[in-house]
Design a protein that fits this description.
heterodimer, A: alpha/beta, 10-stranded mixed β-sheet, globular, B: alpha/beta, Rossmann fold, 8 helices
């Protein structure tokens, strides 16, 4: 059976959990959260009968959800974490969903950056409640609705017009309590012509559920560099959605790196709502053993003269399964749109699998849109060529895998992310051999 | 002897291409193998380099007294065998300099030498690049990536110059080259002739041999060497074509 909704008793358990641990919102978010919970109760978890979930079966995750939500985190756990970026960054740490000023490098965050409970954010960030869940719709999926309902602490970045945040904001979400369900939440609002770099880094030390939602709106001329690195524990479940809206002439440059979790599903939703907005999105996902990794990107061109480029690559070894779904949607008024979507995949073993679907949906007549997808194995001729120069088989194989990823990583602004990718590639090859 | 091929038989996709070939190359010698299309020239080159799908079914190949056929392609290269490809592959993402450094250090390791110093290495390859009239910016680009046909061939000889093999097998390195590029390639080869290093030039045309003077010329037809001689044999082939000699042999 692949039923859509948890049984009423299970929903009742989740509702009770929610009531027992109501995040203290001063009731201002109560209605919004109630709506989200009710949306979940009505729609339940997705099934593989739904087009968007065709290749990702969440039944085991769904079965563990109620219990994981009930798990109480150890609020004092202080794991020894190696930061991805250890200098020249604002480091903000959440352990088990709880903001930890003691593990963040900045006691006093600079103006515009806020971390803490959602209720504190309501006080600190005027109008926060209007933005909380404004881009993330409950009906998008059970996971988005659950995050809105249950998110406890959150990170908010609110930059006034013309403000440039000199240092990147590096936020670490680490799950250290076994069998815990966490709901990381990030909200950013970039005023006109402001600039920021945001790096989200997800790790866990046990089986856990990590379900994150990020909402970013960029006003006229704002520029966001966004990076997400996911390297959760191999038995963790990671689901995440980022909503990024770009107003007139706003710019997004993004890079996603997915290497961890037993089941990972990331979805990037970009909306180009203003004339001249542009997005350049890259992603590298990899899997080994029995990992399942899904990478989705949806770019909506809703205004004229908008541009986007999406380049995603997957590398899969052993019996890993990858899913790529990329969609470019061009609305009727989005004339002169230029968009390019490519997905390339490398399968390192016979048992590895990839399901890829790049899509274009175009309702404007004067646009330039291309998409393409290729999947292959390591090229035997290239392998022989390298070996004919004296390089042994394993090294030659490594060079080719690294080259495949390297083409995508070239130009990535954050050196630490490149290094992290290379590190993961080495681990992948060890696993795949 | 550097290389001794005895009664070599090799197949591709279960079709026998090399049918009992014998060839002996002494240190310092330059041999040219000529032959019409489909005679087995490239199969010989690939089989000697160890390409997996070129299956040796009979015969033996001894290189420096070792059983060459028992060695993996990379081990052959480290032992000093170099193949200049007829169709060099493009490998985006692996830079020429990265490949050369890995290859050179693999060869040095084999000889018990330490890894080359980074500065010394750059100086060394820049000198060799100049010799082959290759722009330095080629070094940082992907292997053969976006190179023209002539550039790819020059890059093969450049790699040879860097790796300094004991036996270089050049598979139709002259094909597709204009006369200026041909001269550069020939010069690169001639500079490497030192009385010890040996060459096996595989070519369809006599033209290359105007610039690289061979010690021996062999005619390959239907998988066997049907005639051997001095460099004059090449001129004879140029004048009369392969038909006459093939008719005489059959």
């Amino acid at each position: 059976m692949n039923t859509a909704t948890p049984d009423p008793a299970t929903i009742e358990v989740m509702r009770k959990t929610w009531q027992e641990r109501p995040p203290a919102d001063n009731l201002r978010l109560h209605d919004r959260r109630t709506r989200a919970l009710e949306s979940f109760a009505q729609n339940g978890f997705p099934t593989t009968h739904q087009e968007n979930w065709k290749y990702t079966d969440v039944r085991k995750l769904a079965a563990s959800y109620p219990e994981c939500l009930r798990t109480v985190p150890d609020g004092t756990a202080t794991p020894d974490l190696v930061p991805l970026i250890d200098k020249d960054a604002l480091r903000i740490t959440f352990i088990d969903g709880i903001y930890r000023p003691d593990l963040s490098t900045v006691g006093d965050l600079p103006p515009g950056v806020f971390a803490g409970s959602v209720s504190e954010l309501l006080t600190a960030v005027p109008g926060f409640e209007a933005h909380f869940g404004a881009l993330a719709h409950d009906s998008d999926s059970a996971f988005v609705a659950l995050n809105t309902a249950f998110a406890g602490d959150a990170l908010a970045i609110v930059l006034p017009d013309n403000m440039e945040l000199g240092q990147p904001v590096y936020v670490r979400f680490h799950a250290s309590t076994p069998q815990l369900g966490t709901q990381p939440r990030v909200m950013a609002k970039l005023g006109a012509n402001s600039r920021a770099t945001l790096i989200e880094h997800y790790t866990s030390s046990h089986q856990a559920i990590v379900n994150s939602v990020t909402e970013v709106s960029c006003e006229t001329g704002a520029a966001l560099n966004y990076y997400k690195v996911q390297e959760e524990h191999r038995e963790a479940w990671h689901t995440a959605v980022q909503y990024i809206d770009l107003a007139r002439d706003a710019r997004l440059v993004s890079m996603h790196l997915d290497t961890g979790a037993g089941l990972a599903r990331n979805e990037l939703q970009v909306r180009l709502t203003g004339k001249g907005a542009a997005a350049d999105c890259k992603g590298l996902f990899m899997g080994s053993n029995n990992q399942h990794v899904e990478c989705r990107i949806n770019v909506e061109h809703a205004a004229a003269d908008t541009q986007s480029r999406e380049r995603f690559r997957g590398i899969l070894a052993d019996k890993a399964c990858g899913v790529f779904n990329g969609r470019i949607y061009v609305e009727p008024e989005a004339q002169k749109t230029a968009a390019e979507l490519t997905n390339r995949n490398l399968l390192l073993s016979k048992g590895a699998e990839i399901n890829t679907k790049p899509e274009l949906e175009i309702y404007a007549d004067d646009v330039k849109c291309v998409h393409g997808s290729t999947t292959g194995q390591l090229d035997e001729q290239s392998l022989f060529y390298l070996m004919s120069r004296g390089i042994d088989h394993d090294e030659a194989r490594n060079m080719l895998v690294e080259a495949f990823a390297g083409e995508l990583l070239a130009g990535t602004g954050i050196e630490a992310i490149k290094q992290k990718a290379q590190q993961a590639l080495r681990a992948l090859r060890t696993a795949g051999q | 002897m550097l290389l001794e091929i005895n009664n070599l038989h090799a197949s591709v996709n279960d079709v026998e291409i090399i049918k009992g070939l014998n060839l002996t190359i002494a240190p310092g010698e330059v041999h040219a193998i000529m032959g019409p299309n489909g005679s087995g020239k490239s199969t010989l080159a690939q089989a000697l380099a160890g390409r997996e799908d070129y299956l040796v079914t009979d015969g033996s190949v001894s290189y420096k007294g070792r059983d060459l056929l028992d060695m993996e392609p990379d081990a052959r290269a480290r032992a000093g065998v170099f193949l200049g490809f007829q169709y060099p592959v493009e490998i985006p993402g692996v830079s020429n300099v990265y490949l050369l450094k890995a290859a050179l250090n693999a060869r040095r390791k084999e000889k018990g030498e330490p890894e080359i110093d980074a500065i010394e290495f750059m100086r060394f390859i820049k000198d060799k690049a100049k010799l082959m009239e290759l722009d330095e910016k080629f070094l940082s680009r992907g292997v053969n990536e976006g190179f023209s046909g002539g550039e790819k061939k020059r890059n093969e000889i450049f790699q040879m110059a860097v790796l300094e093999p004991d036996l270089a097998i050049l598979d139709e390195t002259d094909s597709g080259l204009d006369i200026d590029a041909l001269k550069v390639v020939a010069n690169g080869v001639n500079k490497q002739r030192d009385g010890q290093r040996s060459f096996l030039l595989i070519t369809h045309y006599q033209r290359l041999l105007d610039y690289i003077e061979p010690d021996h010329v062999h005619v390959l037809a239907n998988g066997r060497i049907i005639q051997s001689g001095s460099k004059e044999l090449a001129l004879e082939l140029e004048e009369h074509g392969y038909d006459k000699i093939l008719a005489a042999a059959s």
